[in-house]
Amino acid sequence: MRNKVYFISDLHLGARYIADAQAHEKRVVAWLESIRDHASALYLLGDILDYWYEYRYVVPKGHVRFLGALARLVDAGVKVYWFLGNHDIWLFSYMQSEIGIEVVDGSRVVELSGKRFFLEHGDGVGHKSAGFRFIRALFRNRLAQKLFSAVHPRWTVPFAFAWSSSSRNGYGGNADIEACVQRHLVHLREFAESYPGEIDYFVFGHLHCIVDERLARGSQFVVLGDGISHFSYCEFDGRELKFGSY
Fold first, then answer.
1. DSSP readout, 135-173?
2. What residues contact residue 33 under an 8 Å CB cut-off, 6+ apart?
3. In whole numbers, what is the pLDDT of the chain averaged over residues?
4. Which residue has the higher pLDDT, 140 or 50?
5. Nearest C-alpha neighbor of 73 from the set 29, 14, 23
6. Please, which residues have CB within 8 angstroms of residue 99's CB and are 6 or more apart in sequence?
7. Is 171 or 182 the better-scoring residue by pLDDT?
8. What pLDDT, on the 0 to 100 scale, is given for residue 132?
9. Which DSSP letter does residue 63 get?
10. Pairing mode of beta strands 79-83, 39-44
11. Does the structure show a pLDDT above 50 at 170?
12. Mean pLDDT of the region 48-59
């Protein structure tokens, strides 16, 4: 019976800092296969791929098993939504035209079994530094995208993966990473508490940590973890939202 909705984020498939990328992909694929007979919808809340740039006539190599598993879900009747993250920001039409996935840029409020969900990757709401706002705007600029696509992938792909690895390792240590995560959590909580509409669940990714708490306004505040160290997801059965691991 297809009565469950699933949420997952930050798989970072293809990341160069993952020791065995193929085993990582197979683990995710096994989970996708396990939910196929129960899922009515799957929400991918960003940074599913560590890097993706979609050219007009070619797409990056890799991720064949993963994309095939998503195609099997869609063919089975599961609705799949892919929210852009800050790593897979350059998804354009391929996922929609070839697989049938709906790509979402930004946040969305959806109603599921009478409950209202606010969904976002987590990098697009709350306080953002001036530098981050600049980079985010640049990455979404059409002219900048066209200029980037004019450079041969032999240069852009290694550059993108190197940037991803350097940003992950660019902190002074675990204490700095934790401090950054906690600051961002404060901003996300403030955003959720001040949101003007009635929301039952605020669901985010991005921060690579697991959070499940009740806000003062009564909403449930959730950060999904990741597919690198937590192997976590959330499942909604129409009554409650709960964490699972794969």
1. HHHHHH-HHHHHHHHTS-HHHHHHHHHHHHHHHHS-SSS
2. 69, 72
3. 91
4. 50
5. 29
6. 67, 70, 71, 74, 80
7. 182
8. 74
9. -
10. parallel
11. no
12. 89
Six-digit token pair at 235?
């499942």
Burial (0-12, 13-18, 19+ Cβ within 10 Å), 56: exposed
Structure tokens at 1: 């019976």
Place of tokens 């450079």: 151
- Strands 241-245 and 220-224 turn out to be unpaired
Instruction: Quote the tokens at residue 177.
Output: 């990473």
Cα–Cα–Cα angle for 110, 13, 34, rounded to 5 degrees: 60
Residue 166: pLDDT band by 50, 70, 90 thresholds?
Answer: low
Residue 26 corresponds to which tokens in the numbers above?
């197979």
Cα separation values, 73 from 80, 101, 120, 174, Å: 8, 10, 22, 37
What's the confidence (pLDDT) of residue 127?
74
CA atoms within 13 A on the CB side of 108: 15
- Taking the complete model, does pTM exceed 0.90, yes or no? yes
Instruction: Put the strands of the sheet holding 39-44 in their side by side order.
Output: 102-104, 79-83, 39-44, 4-8, 232-236, 241-245
Q: Which tokens belong to 48?
A: 């599913």
Question: Which residue is it, tokens 């999904």?
Answer: 224
Instruction: Name 25's Cβ contacts closer than 8 Å, sequence gap at least 6.
Output: 13, 63, 65, 66
Place of tokens 């984020």: 9
SS3 246: coil
**What six digits make up the tokens of 74?**
């869609």
